[in-house]
Predict the 3D structure of the following.
Amino acid sequence: MIEAKSAAWSEAHDGLAEEITRWIAGAIRRQKDLPFAGGHDECNYTATWTTFSKITGDPEPMAFCKGLRDQLLAWPEFHHGFFPDAKWDIEHSVENWTVFMVALAQADPGDDLTAAGIEDVVHHLGNWADGVPDWFDWERKRFVSEWVGTRAVRDEPPWDFSTYWDARASELALAYHDLRGDERYLEFAIAFATGWAEHLLAQEGLGYWLMLDADTEDREGFKAAYGEYPEVFHARNIGWLPEVMRHMLHVYSRVGGEPLKDAAVKAIELGPEAIARDRGQAPDPWSWMREYQARTGDERFAREVGDGEAALVAAARTAAEQPLPTIVMLEGLAPYPTRKYAWRDEAGELGELTGPGAQEMMDAYALSGDEALGVHAMELAARELHLAATTLRDGREHGCNSRWLHGAGSLAVRVFAAASEA
């Protein structure tokens, strides 16, 4: 636990810890007697519990997560961690591993059972598994098929291409390397990330960069395999660009490599406009630039980063003037509603919470040193979690959908962790 900076800081920090403890204890009570049922992201609602357990020393969240891990590893339908349906993309096929298992391993890196469970998955990525045809082409630096190649490899149309989803598998290999230092998994991540960087750099603009070697001219064949035409697939998923860019930067931060850096620059320069064109709203690229600068040391975007950080601090100070919310609202259609918060003004009307959220406000505290922002961030995260816990389900049925209770809880843990390190 932290040494209190002030009475207000200590009170907010303790209050946030108490709210997170209630959330986790309640979820454990609701879920402990329900066996793992094979959901591809069923464990992920607990992904931040181990971080909280490690910071506070509370053994219960860690114990529950290790019990859930044991059920995950024992589920008979998985094939070395991969979901039984080989038509599933890699990202969804091993999602419990890329989120839940990695978080568990990072919180307790000495646990060999967790590490071995991760290796059982990544062992299949680089053609190291006996009796299975080669799935990864090391010379071309890409998977030869989007068909999950743990039993067979279908390198014929329409499966003979690779998509951005596969970056999650490469990130998992990188995570295992960081756990146990096995260099072949780092070499795999280098090859994968470099292959995608070279692919992105070879495009005129961004092109169909989300799909490597796909026959986009065979629109009907593509639709038969993936349920939609290639241009629709690409437009719907263009928002994944920053995640692939971040994987390139993760690899670059370890070993360098100019194609990785150059591809990240291209993504930053062209990505927001492409996303705006296909999705109707452009992301603010300053956070991409900020991560690029932190990972590479290259300050070509220093002015934009500085302006963005100053704008965040100013917006956080304005947002902190709002009352803490008393109402949680869900807007939109299931299964993807938007979680919003509001309060009642003097006339009894709803005032919707706007501006930077609790995590961004804690970031603004780190940038400015303004303790009031850190205090408000913790109070806001605690209040939002309290409201969400009265209304929303745990999220076990859709662990990657942060709109449910575990989304508010995970945000609260991240704010708590940042405050604990301050």
In short: Residues 7-31 form the longest helix (25 residues). The chain is about 55% helix and 5% strand. The chain has two domains: 1-77+301-422, 78-298. Residues 78-298 form one domain.
